C-alpha cells in the first residue's frame, strides 16, 4: 500500500505513468485520452462495464499493443529482474509442460531468477501441491494462478493483472489480493482490472471507473462511496456507470469516428532513466 512505498534511487515514487492513451478498433473508439499514474506500492483497480476497455488499456500499458495515441512510461529505480509483469485475461501455456516447468521456462528468461524463486512462487500463488501436474490438466482457476505466478516472477516494478480473480473460489480471490498487497508492500505498483468489487473495495488504494472511453470517477474506495452516497463499491459502480442492477451494461464503444486500426502508431513502453 502507498504508505509502505519507498522511493527509488532517483527519488521518483512513480511506478507507471500513462498520458492521453487513445485506442480504436476500426470505427469503434475504445479509449479516448486516458491518463493514469500509479505510484510504487499502490494498488490501482480499473473497474468498468463489459466492453468498456479495461483489457485494451492493460494491453497498451503492458506494451503488447500499440495505441492510436498517448504515451506509457515506466521509470527506473524499482523492481527486480524485469520492469513489467502481465497477467492476460486468458492466460495460455504449453499443455505438456508441468506448472513448475512452465515457471522454470519463464525464469530462464529473467536474469538472476532461478529454481528457488520458482518454488517460492508456486507456494505464493497456492500451486505448490500441483507443481508437477501438466498444465493441460490444471483447472481454469489453477491456470489463472499459474498466470499470476508467471506475472510476479522476477519481482517486476509494475504488475498488470487482467481479471486475476475470474474463476477463482472466494478463498483464492482473497489469497490473490493478499499476494497483490504483499507485492505492493514491497514497492510494486499494481494495476488490476477486476469485476470483484468487494475485493477491490477491501484491497485497492485507488479505484478508476472506466466508461465512455475514459475514467468517469477515481479515488479511494471510501471516497467513491462518499461521493455517490452509497454503502458499497458495487452500489457506487452502478451509480457511476448510470445503470440499475440487472440492466445490460455491455459497452459497444465510446463513440463513432475512431481512427482505423491500421493508423495505430506503436506505443512503446518507455524505460525512463
Ligand atoms: N482486437 C480487437 N479487435 C476489435 N475490437 C476489439 C478488439 N479488442 C477489443 N475490442 C473491442 O474493444 C472494446 C473493449 O474491449 P475490452 O476487452 O478492452 O473490454 P473490457 O472492459 O476488458 O471488457 P470485459 O469486462 O468484458 O472483459 C469492446 O467493444 C471490444 O469488442
Automatic annotation (TrEMBL):
GO terms for molecular function: ATP binding. Residues 262-273 have a biased composition (Acidic residues). This is ABC transporter ATP-binding protein. It comes from Halobellus rubicundus. Residues 249-273 are annotated as: Disordered. Pfam families: ABC_tran (PF00005). Keywords: ATP-binding, Nucleotide-binding, Transport. Belongs to the ABC transporter superfamily.
Amino acid at each position: 500500500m502507498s504508505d509502505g512505498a519507498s522511493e527509488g534511487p532517483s527519488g521518483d515514487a512513480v511506478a507507471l505513468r500513462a498520458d492521453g492513451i487513445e485506442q480504436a478498433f476500426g470505427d469503434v473508439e475504445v479509449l479516448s485520452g486516458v491518463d493514469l499514474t500509479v505510484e510504487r506500492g499502490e494498488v490501482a483497480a480499473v473497474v468498468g462495464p463489459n466492453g468498456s476497455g479495461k483489457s485494451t488499456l492493460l494491453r497498451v500499458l503492458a506494451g503488447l499493443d500499440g495505441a492510436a495515441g498517448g504515451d506509457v512510461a515506466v521509470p527506473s529505480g524499482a523492481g527486480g529482474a524485469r520492469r513489467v509483469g502481465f497477467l492476460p485475461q486468458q492466460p495460455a501455456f504449453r499443455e505438456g509442460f508441468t506448472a513448475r516447468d512452465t515457471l522454470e521456462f519463464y525464469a530462464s528468461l529473467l536474469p538472476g531468477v532461478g529454481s528457488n524463486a520458482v518454488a517460492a512462487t508456486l507456494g505464493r500463488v497456492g500451486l505448490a501441491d500441483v507443481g508437477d501436474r501438466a498444465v493441460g490438466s490444471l483447472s481454469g482457476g489453477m491456470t489463472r494462478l499459474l498466470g499470476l505466478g508467471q506475472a510476479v516472477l522476477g519481482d517486476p516494478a509494475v504488475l498488470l493483472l487482467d481479471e486475476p480473480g475470474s474463476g477463482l473460489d472466494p478463498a483464492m480471490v482473497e489469497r490473490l489480493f493478499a499476494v497483490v498487497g504483499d507485492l505492493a508492500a514491497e514497492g510494486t505498483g499494481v494495476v488490476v482490472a477486476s469485476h470483484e468489487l468487494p475485493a477491490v473495495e477491501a484491497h485497492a488504494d485507488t479505484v478508476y471507473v472506466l466508461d465512455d472511453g475514459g475514467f468517469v470517477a477515481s479515488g479511494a474506495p471510501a471516497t467513491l462511496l462518499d461521493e455517490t452516497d452509497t454503502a458499497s463499491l458495487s452500489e457506487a459502480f452502478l451509480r457511476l456507470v448510470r445503470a440499475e442492477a440487472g440492466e445490460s451494461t455491455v459497452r459497444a464503444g465510446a463513440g463513432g469516428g475512431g481512427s482505423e486500426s491500421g493508423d495505430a502508431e506503436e506505443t512503446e513502453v518507455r524505460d525512463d532513466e
